[in-house]
Design a protein that fits this description.
Blueprint (H helix, E strand, L loop, with lengths): L1 H20 L3 H9 L9 H25 L6 H14 L5 H16 L4 H34 L3 H27 L2 H5 L8 H8 L1 H5 L3 H29 L5 H16 L9 H14 L3 H17 L5 H17 L1
Length: about 325
Amino acid sequence: MKRYLWLILRLALTIALFAWLLRDPKLREQLAALPRPPAPAWLLPAWIAAGLNELASLLRWWCCLHLAGVALPLRRAAALHFLGLFTSLFLPGMAGGDAVKIAFLALQFPQRKMGGVLAVLMDRLSGFVSIIVWTFIVAMKRGEWFRQTPATAALFHAVLIFLGVAAGALLVWFISSRAPLLRRTPQWIPLRARIIEIAAVFDTFFADRRRACAALVLSASSHACYFLLYYFTALAFAGDLSLGDAFSVMPVMDVVSMLPVTISGLGLRETTMQALLTPLCGIAPATAVFISLSGFLIAASWAFAGVPVFLRFRSVQKTDTTHA
């Protein structure tokens, strides 16, 4: 029961956030009367943008696998990427999909069990560095835009503080991972060799600078495509959203939805989208909710490419258990 407690709590928080959103009778009326999207043709480029996002994420994952010493062919790396993407829809946060990837790699490469951990860590770190850069660029270019209302200013500043602390922590990690400091780690610490290997992830990442730079460029490209996904989705429901406004709002929403609070960020994403699009872009609250939900569903549609891989993985697990 304990293993499901956190999942149950997250599900309860997801439902509570949607209930809080729907507490407003005006919003319920708008949702009930919401017409068909005025430009449904925009949903096709949104779906393509979501696919390009996954393509960039897949190639980044493949680069990180090679950097970690796990030389998977691109086809198998793609299967593992979509397996993690599909399972993350149901397991606690993105960490659930990452855990599946690590478990699969540990089975396939028992001599490189830490390779899966390092690959996932480098994949996540490169993506996180990208969103930090995106958000601070927005802060420099559009900071005053977010300060139009006290609520949007507070949300924006909270995200900046969170990312500032995270960036500081990454800098401390990078400095402390230098080889002379690592060698001073006491010998009596359990799993000392594993801890040193994980702590030195930056050296592992930049050992091949060409692949490392490719991973960082792919991270930025992935985020750009993800932002375009929601921009095109917004055009389908509210045709007057500017590209600059979309690329300013999306990094903030992306950071908030990453928090491990609800299932796949549902409820949290819609609350944040409404809190930003309504006062800053003049988009009706119900439309903002529909934009968020539709964007999530379009992105999630690509996750179902992992269904065949998931079924095969399950069958292999059952076969291994039977033989054991």
